Every structure is written in C-alpha cells, then in structure tokens.
C-alpha cells in the first residue's frame, strides 16, 4: 500500500468530521461519502447518501463485513472543485480507507490524485466526465456509473434516430461535466450529418439567459441539448417558453432533479434526459427497493442505486480479501466482478465500468419520469 502523509495543518484533525469518526468503535470500518451537502445541488448528495445508507444498513443487519459494522462519515464538498482536495485531505488525515463519491465531476477530478497517492479506494457513483480516469494510471479509483463518452453518444443516437431534428443548438455550463458531455453530443451529431446551429457556454448560477435564448430563437434550431445541472436547465426551459421558443430540450442525468419543476414550471413537461436505467424495475431488486421505502427513501433517483452498488462493491471486496486493506481491495475490484443491484459489474484497468446502460426518459410536470415511448 502507498505511504500516507498528512498535508493539512494539525488543527484540522480536530474538525467535526474527526470528532465524529473518533466516536466510532475501533473495530468499525468507516466509509466516507464525499459530495454536495450544501449549495445548489445538494439533492445529488442526498441521492448518494440514501443509497449508501441503505446499503450499509442492510450489510450491517446481515452481520457486517468481517464481523465489523460499516460506519458512514459524510463530507461536504458543495460540488466545488476547490473543495475536492480539502475533503480528500480530511479523509486521508482521518485515516478513512474508502470513499463513495465524489458526486460532481469537477470535485472528483480535483480529489483523485490525493486518494490514489494515499492508497484510498474511491468509487464514484455519479461523476461521469472521462477526465476523471483517462490517462491517469490510477490504482484505487473506480466508478459505478458510465462515462460521458458513453452517455453522450447514447443521447446523440437517440436525437438522430428518434427526434430527427433539422438543426440542433448545443449549450453547456462551462464546467468539466457539462462541457464534456455537450462536446460528445455535438461531435456525434455532426458525424451523423445533423447541423449544429451553435455550441455555446453559459455561466452557471446566472439568473438571466435571455441573450442565449434570443440567439437560439434566431438560429432556427428546433432542438436543444444542454450539458449541465438542473438549476440552469430549469431557467433555460422557462425563459425559452416565455420567449416563445418552440424547440425540444434534452440534457444528461444532471438535470434529472425534482427541484427543476419549481424552476421551470409547466415548461419542464416533456424534457428529455438520459439517466441510468431504472434498476428499480428489475425483479431481483424487490428487497432492495423495499429497504429504501421502509426508510422513506426513493430508490428510483439518478444515483441511489449506483451509490448502493458502490458501497456493496467495497464491502464485498473487503470480505473477499479478508482484510480491511484498501490496496488489496483495489486489486480485487480490478480483477473480479461484483453482483450489485445495477447488475454484475466489472472494471477495466483504469477503473471504468466495462458496460453501463443509459436510457432516455421523458420528464413530467408532476416530477415523475417515464422511459421514452412507454
């Protein structure tokens, strides 16, 4: 295992996270959740926490791992890249060997070097940007979700074959995740001979996108793809409707949040998005879905099941190697498949899933979603 060091000041070891961790018994195995628990996309952190908590509760009820309980430690990075290393260093200093997260791609990219250098196993259930893993040679970094260069082509293929637009405008939020997937969609549309009217970034957090809406209306585009998160997509939908833009909208899993309804209002009806397949419909997952429901949780969100799968993968690997040893756990995950609610999963040498299925959903005004065409 790689040698640990503690780059933060000694005072940080007295943080609230360490005090919480210190309360755990020495025989517990701690798993950190790293994600946004403050800021505009806290719902994504909550989705991941629901998945991790449900998995941990079931694992502990069945006897734990190596006879030890799993204990969850929550770390907030607010989905900000600059907070990724801060959280990663806290986790290293608190000697936590396993992380489910980070949730947002930007924060994940900023944290992965630290985890890999320090021998911490990190499994992200939601960070889809290819640059999380591409060309890094990481040993301890994994995903339980597909990449944007899997999701983007799936979206583009759908647009080409099902929507058949005359002209598409492609927008993004200038961030790692949003711009990356928007670029993948644009490239595949152009390869298929679909005209891309324009490719443009907007500023995340702005409240007025009237300038880009005006350009959209004058471009003649009859379909819009947006790479980014739900707050911006909600505003684009509402402001486009207010300006009389008659175009369909589509986005990635980052726009699939019930809070978008309060932002977009009636304009959200019919929004298209790619999401992980609805694993709640698998008959093999009945018990897992019931475990979510028993705690008042929703198993059908974007990241609950992928977070459950990440937790189970870590737990199963610890059990299989017979030791709380992250180096051996990482070696096991690279070499073996794990049975999870998202299926039998396995990884390539850089920690990406060999296969992952994205489906296209229609979003509705009441906050529900349906598989497109059903």
UniProtKB/TrEMBL annotation:
Q: Does the keyword Transport apply?
A: yes
Entry keyword annotation includes Signal: yes
InterPro entries per record: Leu-bd, Leu_Ile_Val-bd, Peripla_BP_I
Q: Which domain of life is it from?
A: Bacteria
The residue range of the signal peptide is 1-26
Keywords in UniProt for this one?
Amino-acid transport, Signal, Transport
Q: Which SUPFAM superfamilies match?
A: Periplasmic binding protein-like I (SSF53822)
Q: Where is the Leucine-binding protein domain?
A: 29-361
| The family this protein is said to belong to | Belongs to the leucine-binding protein family.
Record's protein name: Branched-chain amino acid ABC transporter substrate-binding protein
List the source organism: Alcaligenes endophyticus
